[in-house]
Amino acid sequence: MPATLHTQRIAAPDRTPDRWLFLLHGIFGAGRNWNAVSRRIVEARPEWGVLAVDLRGHGRSDSGAPPHTLEACVDDLLHLPEHGAPPAAAVLGHSFGGKVATLFAEAAELESLWIADSTPSAREPGGSAWEMIDVLEDHPGPFRDRDAGIAAVESAGYARPVAMWMGTNIERGSDDAWRWRLDAEQMRELLIDFFEVDAWPAIRSAAEAGTRVRLIRATESSIVSEEDRTMLQRLHDEGLPVERIDVEGGHWLNADAPDRVAEILAEGL
């Protein structure tokens, strides 16, 4: 059964959007993480609205039934209209959300697909997000307050800003104790599938069907590899509507370059 997803509609004041951009966050994140970008987009393009989605197991969305895979995340999105959500005309996915967005774009036949600093390639599990699962398992809580949870993340060697961002996933229960609202095992299952899935066939399929594909690469991030860039260029050289756009900043483009990312979206939607 699909998860019931929490969504936030962002639109220009006193304007009913003609088309909607679905925005998908990365692992451990939530749709609100991209609100600064979303607001800039609808200010520049008021005919567009942004639907910020909390993926299954994240934010205020349900966990959904296993298996916890990218395809399950896509199925959740495809069922959103049954709960009153507008149909998607475009989708943007960051990091983990990039592969979800790619598979969703193939299934939903959208106008455009925006992949924000996410590799479409299959890889061995690794990196800071993968290692963060150990933190969730080693420090499950409960905590006396959110600061105690943040301190636990810092004790694992993470910088204060990362620990504070992860702390947004700690909430107070009815017993006044603070706990993670993330399930470590579900996060592990989602990331395992993320690393195993090769999304290049979906990119080709979507592009051949007419979906414009734009991969936004953060120049100070190593997520999009040289092999990824070569593959994208090959598709471009075949005449498919794919393009790479480099943006100065690190992996967290929503924080490092919100103005530039919003500008690119506003010009390209």
Which secondary structure elements does this structure contain, and how are they paired or packed?
Blueprint: E1 7-10, E2 19-24, H1 35-44, E3 48-53, H2 70-78, E4 90-94, H3 96-108, E5 112-116, H4 128-138, H5 146-155, H6 160-167, E6 170-172, E7 178-180, H7 184-196, H8 200-208, E8 212-218, H9 226-237, E9 242-247, H10 253-256, H11 258-268
Parallel strand pairs: 2-3, 2-4, 4-5, 5-8, 8-9
Antiparallel strand pairs: 1-3, 6-7
Helix pairs in contact: 1-11, 2-3, 3-8, 4-7, 5-6
In the CATH classification, which architecture of the largest domain applies? 3-Layer(aba) Sandwich
Q: What is the number of helical segments per DSSP (H or I, 4+ residues)? A: 11
* Rg for CA atoms: 18 Å
For the record, the count of structural domains works out to: 2
| Percent range of helical residues | 40-55%
Instruction: Estimate the strand proportion.
Output: 15-25%
Low-pLDDT segments? none
- According to CATH, the homologous superfamily of the largest domain is Alpha/Beta hydrolase fold, catalytic domain
Q: What overall form do the CA principal axes indicate?
A: globular
**Cα-to-Cα separation, first versus last residue:** 32 Å
What class do helices, strands and sheet pairing give?
Answer: alpha/beta
Q: At the first level of CATH, what is the class of the largest domain?
A: Alpha Beta
- Count of β-strands: 9
At the fold tier of CATH, the topology name of the largest domain is Rossmann fold
SSE string, helix = H, strand = E? EEHEHEHEHHHEEHHEHEHH
Order of strands side by side in the largest beta sheet?
1-3-2-4-5-8-9
- Characterize the main sheet: 7 strands, mixed
Mean pLDDT: 96
